[in-house]
Amino acid sequence: MSGLPKYHALKVDAAKCIGCTHCMKSCPAEAIRVVNGLAVIDHERCVDCGQCHRACPTKAFYVEQDDLAQIKSFKYRVILFPSIMIGQFPEKYNEDRIYEGFKKVGFTHVYEVEQPMQLLIDSVKEYCIRPDSIKPAISTYCPAIVRLIQSRYPSLTENLIMRKAPHDLAAHFAIERLMLEGARREEIGLFYATPCIAKIASVKSPVGEEESIVDGVINMNHLYNEVMKVIADGEEIDHSEQRENLSNEGVLWSLTRGESRHFGSRSMAIDGIHNVVRFLERLENDQVHGIDFLELRSCDQSCAGGILLTGNRFLTTERLERRAKRYPSAKDISNTVLKVNTEELKQKLIIDSISPKPVFIFGTDRAKAMDKMERAQRIVCFLPGIDCGACGAPNCHALAEDMVNNKAKMSDCIFLQQMWVDEDRIKAKKAFLNVQKKWGTDRFKADCKKRGRRNEGF
Amino acid sequence: MKLSFSIQGGDFTQAGHPSSQVKKVLKQLGIDGKAIKSIVIALYEAEVNVVAHAYSGTMEVEIEEHKITILVSDEGPGIPDVELAMQAGYSTASKKVREMGFGAGMGLPNIKKNTDELLIKTEIGKGTTIKMVNYFI
User: Fold this and answer.
1) Are the beta carbons of B29 and A358 separated by less than 8 Å?
2) What interface predicted TM-score (ipTM) does this complex get?
3) B2-135 has which CATH code?
4) Segment A205-217, tens digit of pLDDT
5) Cβ atoms within 10 A of the Cβ of B19, count?
6) Which of A80, A168, A434, B29 has the fewest Cβ atoms within 10 angstroms?
7) Residue B36 at interface with chain A, using a CB cutoff of 8 Å
8) Domain ranges of chain B
9) For chain A, what is the domain count?
10) What's the number of CA atoms in the CB half-sphere (13 Å) around residue B92?
11) Does B63 touch chain A (CB under 8 A)?
12) A250-283 CB burial, b ≥16 within 10 A, e <16
């Protein structure tokens, strides 16, 4: 499987970044280093979880997105969004008003992605009961988790459920429905409103697929602002037809336990990427037994905690839980309402393969790799072990590894440098210049309104 | 390359640290996931054996290009009947240990299953040393 090149929407704004190391320390993939006073992301390692974006006190991380204006080039303009989008809006706006808002922004069709849910539920169930599926079966819903497993837990790749996510389901569903209405494929423009950067990456360069079905991705917070500009209080326009396949299960899908409640006799749901990392570590060591289904989500409170959301994650969850109660169960929505060939749609939910992509390997030559690791091990003995981050690496061990991979120098460690000064091995002036080179001159200036301090926001 | 760890008898909260460390190194060397899994399972079981039965112990790990040798030595009661202990389900673990979810009598059988070579030396009242060797490509 070659697939598309790995796309990352997250970028660092050099004008805002102060190299404060908050992002570097929060990254579960050790993918960030501070170089010349700026955070630099290693795209091979990055899993798009967005922890750095969350941790940044100066909002230096920004998310690239497609231009909303490009929807105009299509006759049928479809906005696909997960149900949590509805949970963002103030209570006074009901679903129909929000749908009307999307129309005013310029879309012709509005589809929440979690429909028709029973198809996906059945498909995942079928996969899980197959004798060759490896337990615990791990959901592929959260793209950051899939990438984390591919890169950091490659042996668990075989546990991943070879089924696509709701946004793929809805995209195919929307196309089928519109073509039934007489639309030609090239007239249909599909746009996905994303709650997080991992979904952007998975839509732009889907794991296990050759090309993306979606024409553009819009950040949910941006779309929220656009809709809020045009949304009106009084209007009553009925858009319920567009939600006729939306179910209780669908509305809850993106929340924690949205999936796990349906599958396996012993299932678990874990949210928050650092929690997931700790659990996968155990799972990989074969210290977890008897669990047959795992729902793993990168964000705290799952998609309600996505970094591109506007609302509070707990309020969003609460609103969706109440909303779900008004919808019928997915199994009570009959296939005749779907109006499309469900067998064909089901076929489209199958992922052919997901291959492991280990990124922590020290090169392919085993002897050389062992030599490097032994050197790194010896270097660690000389480092202070307090993981201060002043070298620009997230911890002493990572620095040692960077050193043997020729990505860092011994003098990057300020403790080693200080020792060398004491032993007269380098001049104090030279040591100072080294640190200044790493962090820039501003870090040494007295300034009560220093960036970073000013932005820490108490 | 060599790695060494000390193991504290009775302290289940710390169990698993050597497994994770060794696993990290093996992954960085690009060793096949299935081979790593066997090694890590054997290593963890051996570690838990020390924690559950002995007073203290050490673990010496030596990784070569196509081979890993793990030596786990403990100061403990020793194993009175090794053959019996190798049988699945046989356990001398205390009630307290079993209540914590350990001591199912699968330790040594699991180690045997997941290692290419296994050598057990034990002396009653003194302690046990086990040597495990796994090969990989």
Assistant:
1) no
2) 0.81
3) 3.30.565.10
4) 776 666 778 889 9
5) 27
6) A434
7) yes
8) 2-135
9) 3
10) 14
11) yes
12) bbbbbbbebbbebbbeebbbbbbbeebbebbbeb
